[in-house]
Amino acid sequence: MAIILDKTKSLFTLQTDHSMYQMKKDRYGVLLHTYFGKRGSVFDYSYLVTYADRGFSGNPYDAGNERSYSLDALPQEYPAYGSGDYRTSALKVRYPDGSFSCELKFKDFEIQEGKYNLPGLPAIYLSDDGTDGRADTLIITLEDTRRLFYVHLYYGVMENLDLITRAVRIENHSEADIYLENVQSACIDFLHGSFDLHTFYGRHVKERTCQRTPVSHGIQSIGSTRGTSSHQYNPFLILSDRTTTEETGNCFGLSLLYSGDFLGAAEHDQYNQTRVLMGIHPDNFTWRIKPGDSFFAPEAALAWSGNGLGQLSRIYHRAYRDNLCRGIWKTKRRPVLLNSWEGVYFDFNGDKLVEMAQEASKLGVELFVMDDGWFGKRDLDVSGLGDWFVNEEKLGCTLASISERIHALGMKFGIWFEPEGINEDSELYRNHPDWAMQIPGKAPSRSRYQLLLDFSREDVREYILSQICQVLDSTEIEYLKWDLNRSLSDIYSAALPAERQGEAAHRYVLGVYDMLEKLHSRYPGMLIEGCSGGGGRFDAGMLYYTPQIWCSDDTDAIERLSIQYGTSFGYPISTMGSHVSKCPNEQTGRITPIHTRAAVAMSGTFGYELDPHEMTREEKETVKSQIEEFKSYYELIQYGDYYRLTNPATAESWHSWQFASSDGSEALLISVALKIHPNGPGCWCRLKGLKEDSTYLVNGEAYPGDVLMNTGLPLPAATAEYESIRLHITEK
Ligand code: GLA
């Protein structure tokens, strides 16, 4: 049993294979957080909590005049606003009398076999065949001292995955409406320790750059109020010891399965304690709960590693690849694709697309994706969005004719949609201007010439879904790219009364999930790729519906090194949409060898995004062999263990990463020369994930596994910028 209950001590200990988490109901009914870290003895860790008279940190009424009992100094599992704990809180409720102060007390608990689910929200699951080991659910119920609502804290304990999930349900059991102003999904209090906070910041075409800063007094936060998880910050953070490296040391991951506004914060308090929280961003959020109703906060996934950041990433990689992504494409080899966007942008007709596909099929490409520009009046991004009917005039043929001709080549066919978007210059807007999100009496801000539809509204979603299904049902389509090309603004829903406008942003996200779920169940064979101007909605929430996400609109292989490196901290290789594009690169003008572009794209879902007609004969031959090579490495890359060997921001000459099969019998080392130093120092690379006492072949030479891992392999002196090496290492 992964949940150990000590009733006499009111102690709840959650254990995974390597980590442990503990809570305790204290003498006043407050749920203390007493431990998170390495799995160790099941012991009452509340002995670590010290009590002292804390000036200006008051005492709850129940504690009488016990001046050494102060919530402001205690490690708590779910701290509420106005309880006398002045740190960042996990819950803020507006009571019927307009006040906000809330105190929570332990009420009850329940243990269930298996992992809980959340209605309408993504959640990690275990497969039915038992291969992922066991999972248990603990639900602890707290009640506010005014007896209006319950806070049900959900814990999913997945032993073999080394993962603990949390979620929260707030249940109004009173006779009056209450309003949530803030409900964080997870909060962890650390009594002591000096930590670094790792976050992933960026912008459009430069997503998920790593930032590591010491946690210092005050509140450090990241988040999004853009309606999506955003290019700017990612809903994933790591808290580590100051000395933690890729390979060694303690670190904790906190990942939110949510695709909208979020907040991630770390607070170092007056007593040098550290609190981290993550959940829906409170800025754009209020939620009315009617008597008898509940609100579910999205799931957060917590992991601990004692072997550095690399191990922490591999915990998330496995769980997200195998226990978050769903559908047949989770295990089936995904097709190598050619996407039309950077090849022809809006400038195509049906024949041109089919010609591209013909050329691509000769190279071994398996899926042709028709990107933006096939619908409505859409020759540029200024019009047509929302009109999901095929522009046969532009294509010069029907969609079925394109699909049939592509299928006749033995290829699959895919198509681009931006379901949430609407141009004012569209039939849809002319017919339903009120469906676009905008505030009555205020001119909305546009972005990429477009507005967004009010996806919080079921009628709007139903219409768009029916339009999309009409297209999908009209011919054979095996892949759908779901894009979103702007941030939300002017958040307002015509379907909500004034006092509930604070629900619109979250309802929008629920609406996106609802429609994705419907697509997922109606088209179980279809591969859906998420996208938001590249990686603007690259989060664990989306992965529940779309097993891959276009990682960035920056297709430059060298830029992609740091984007994919940053992404790899929280997300598996199999989720990172990555393509070989033309040279010089469209975004940077950089010239890189096609060998290197393929090495980077292979460390993702792999495909091409160019017009194959523009390639030389020699390049085409290279592409043929790249596709064959990728297929031969597929299992190793997509399901193997991934190791970051260097950081592209600091790599001295070669930047390297590696894949190792889980049984250690095979590995692939990839290195890209980032800096050239004539007459430079030598460069060595220690391999990972091999078996110490096995012998391996590298370029025909035999090496003991321990030697390759402990002393490493010399890399050749790089002779040209951006050249690259792929080295296959096999057990003899
Ligand atoms: C976004 C996507 C691109 C492409 C364009 C089409 O920017 O990220 O891949 O689909 O939209 O407009």
Q: Main traits of this protein?
A:
38 strands, 19% helix, binds alpha-D-galactopyranose, 9-stranded antiparallel sheet, alpha+beta, 13 helices, 732 residues, 9-stranded parallel sheet
Overview of the structural elements:
With 732 residues, the protein is of the alpha+beta class. The protein is 19% helix and 31% strand. It is built from 13 helices and 38 strands. The protein has a 9-stranded antiparallel β-sheet with strand order 6-7-8-9-19-15-14-11-12. Helix 10 runs parallel beside helix 11 and helix 11 (594-602) packs parallel to helix 12. It is globular. The model has no long low-confidence stretch (mean pLDDT 97). Bound molecules: alpha-D-galactopyranose. Alpha-D-galactopyranose is lined by residues 341, 371-372, 381, 416, 483, 485, 531, 533-534, 550, 553.
How does the SSE layout of this entry go?
Blueprint lengths: L2 E4 L4 E5 L3 E7 L5 E8 L52 E4 L9 E10 L21 E10 L4 E10 L4 E10 L5 E13 L4 E9 L2 E9 L3 E7 L11 E6 L9 E6 L5 E7 L5 E7 L6 E3 L4 E12 L2 H16 L13 E3 L1 H4 L5 H14 L3 E4 L21 H4 L3 H10 L3 E6 L3 E3 L3 H5 L18 E3 L5 H17 L4 E4 L21 H19 L4 E4 L9 H4 L4 E3 L6 H11 L8 E2 L1 E3 L12 H9 L4 E3 L7 H23 L1 E4 L9 E7 L5 E8 L9 E3 L9 E4 L2 E4 H6 L2 E3 L8 E8 L1
Parallel strand pairs: 20-21, 20-30, 21-22, 22-25, 25-26, 26-27, 27-28, 29-30
Antiparallel strand pairs: 1-2, 2-3, 3-4, 5-10, 6-7, 7-8, 8-9, 9-19, 10-17, 10-18, 11-12, 11-14, 13-16, 14-15, 15-19, 16-17, 23-24, 31-32, 32-33, 33-38, 34-37, 35-36, 35-38
Helix pairs in contact: 3-5, 7-8, 10-11, 11-12
The protein binds alpha-D-galactopyranose.
